[in-house]
Write a structure and sequence with these properties.
Layout: E1 5-7, E2 13-15, H1 39-51, H2 56-63, E3 68-69, E4 72-73, H3 76-86
Antiparallel strand pairs: 1-2, 3-4
Length: 93
């Protein structure tokens, strides 16, 4: 036997690296094609990444009026992100 396999009680080889705690790899269907982000994808990623670095007053201006439902306030960052996503063309989101 090799180092990576052990013998089980029925004589078959078992892989020691296959732990019950490991997450199995997802099966792939056919060849995977690389995804190349469009300029719009890159701009959205840059804008959403910059949201976390904006001061609260600027972020509130981007987000609009506070949203309150059942006495729960929507976080300003989430509201601004949703507002930006809603401004994208429909096929992008």
């Amino acid at each position: 036997m090799t180092e990576a396999t052990t013998s089980t009680s029925d004589g078959s080889a078992a892989d020691r690296s296959a732990s019950p705690h490991r997450i199995p790899a997802l099966p792939t269907v056919g060849a995977t094609t690389p995804v190349h982000p469009t300029p719009l994808d890159r701009a959205v990623r840059l804008a959403v990444g910059a949201l976390g670095h904006l001061p609260e007053p600027v972020l509130r201006a981007v987000a609009g009026a506070p949203v309150v439902r059942d006495d729960q306030h929507l976080e300003t960052e989430v509201q601004a992100g949703l507002r930006m996503l809603s401004a994208l063309p429909e096929e992008s989101f």
